[in-house]
């Protein structure tokens, strides 16, 4: 299990753009994390006033950040910066609102040289809110 301070030692993201609060499981080719969605998130001021909805692109980013935490645990990627290289087949199925707890999961399909591909799923109360494929690239910091 990794808490916020542990995550910040692994990836460079910081508030307000760090979108993973903790990692609850790291397994073979899989990582699971949590994002607690607070009404104080800065994007809720404009998305949307009176009807706050977490932007789908930020849910995808949260999955990408979680995937980066997984990849950076491997020796060959410890000194690399993990960047989002692409999103494929993403579908958004439910709105995420303040008070929701996003459970994030990325299962890696393959990692070759400096490119990785994973399948991300975000759920709230065991209901899928979005899923799709994420491409990661390792670059020099």
UniProtKB/TrEMBL annotation:
Lineage top rank: taxon: Bacteria
Gene Ontology terms: biological process: fatty acid biosynthetic process; lipid A biosynthetic process
Catalytic residues of the enzyme: 47
Cell compartment(s), UniProt: Cytoplasm
InterPro entries per the UniProt record, alphabetical: FabA_FabZ, FabZ, HotDog_dom_sf
PANTHER family hit by this protein: 3-HYDROXYACYL-[ACYL-CARRIER-PROTEIN] DEHYDRATASE
Protein name: 3-hydroxyacyl-[acyl-carrier-protein] dehydratase FabZ
Gene that this sequence comes from: fabZ
């Amino acid at each position: 299990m990794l808490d916020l301070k542990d995550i910040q030692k692994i990836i460079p993201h910081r508030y307000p753009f760090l979108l993973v609060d903790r990692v609850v499981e790291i397994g073979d080719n899989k990582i699971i994390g949590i994002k607690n969605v607070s009404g104080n998130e800065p994007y809720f001021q404009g998305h949307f006033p009176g009807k706050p909805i977490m932007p789908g692109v930020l849910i995808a980013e949260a999955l990408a950040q979680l995937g980066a935490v997984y990849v950076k645990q491997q020796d060959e990627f410890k000194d690399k910066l993990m960047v989002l290289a692409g999103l494929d087949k993403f579908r958004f199925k439910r709105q995420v609102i303040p008070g929701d707890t996003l459970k994030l999961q990325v299962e890696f399909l393959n990692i070759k040289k400096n490119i990785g591909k994973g399948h991300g799923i975000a759920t709230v109360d065991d209901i899928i809110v979005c899923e799709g494929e994420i491409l990661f690239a390792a670059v020099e910091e």
